Amino acid sequence: MxxxxxxHEEKLTALIKIFRNRKITNGxxxxxxxxxxNGVNSSKIxxxxxxxxxxxxxxxxxxxxxxxxxxxxNLDQLIKIRPSASKFPIIVSQDCGHVPTxxxxxxxxxxxxxxxxxxxxxxxxxxxxxxxxxxxxxSRHYKWALNQVFHKLKHTSVIIVEDDLDISPDFFEYxxxxxxxxxxxxxxxxxxxxxxxxxxxxxENNSELLYRxxxxxxLGWMLTNDLWxxxxxxxxxxxxxxxxxxxxxxxxxxxxxxEISRTHTFGKIGVSKGQFFDKHLKFIKLNxxxxxxxxxxxxYLKKENFDKLFHEKVYSLPTVNWMDLKLxxxxxxTAVRIDYNDKKSLSNYC
Length: 350
Known about the structure:
single chain, alpha/beta, 8-stranded mixed sheet, two-stranded antiparallel ribbon, 12 helices, 10 strands
């Protein structure tokens, strides 16, 4: 029996051939679809959207939980805004064995799938790492949960959120639109809902803006089973997110992230003990203006298109001196370019 992915690829190949050789209208007298597409890549993305609109495509949301009964806040939002329970099943993976939290999760009945990480033993860690024990448990939990999603439940992709995240009204719209690009562009390895530099005073107030980034953002992100098959066997014992950012894992691949985040953390209390919450995380802006990404042409996010547009934009900007910019001596420009030669000078500017 063929997998859904194999069937999908056959359909995709056939439809691309049709688009190349025939004029197709949408049945409403509008022009040939080919007139609105720029080359094979755009056509492929458009056809991917058609195929992935079928009910056969299921993208579960994996909620990572432990001992916070406030998981209810996250679940209420997910259930309220998800467009389809069958297309976006919610899997809550709980570590810690915390009974009050388990009762909250179970109170949702068939609206969620509750799975519990069985290994509650203390991890064997170096004495010098004892203060980071919680991070070892988190990494162990992630590996177990993702193995359940991909190896036991046989899903082909997943959106991961933690139990302390607020989500934007267009959260599912965002991931639905970018899923076909993630599947078709080998230079991408994740879609993230988070902008690490998304403070309101430094972002552009444009909910439609999306970028490719070499930095793994996390905090609401999607990956495929192909990537998990690559990363799972060598998953680290701790600090999994820092590990993902290492060149040995990234391998030159990028993530897509929004200018305005589609998630926001309310989790001041946790393993990190609020280390960055008051100084940084609580200031990240959550998008409030829904965008119909599935109605947009997002082919500009393909590497060959994005790199060209990015370079043209950057090198069309006026070059200014960092100190002049810092002292507000630069005026008349909404964007400028500052050149640097090494990591030290970049660090000084930042």
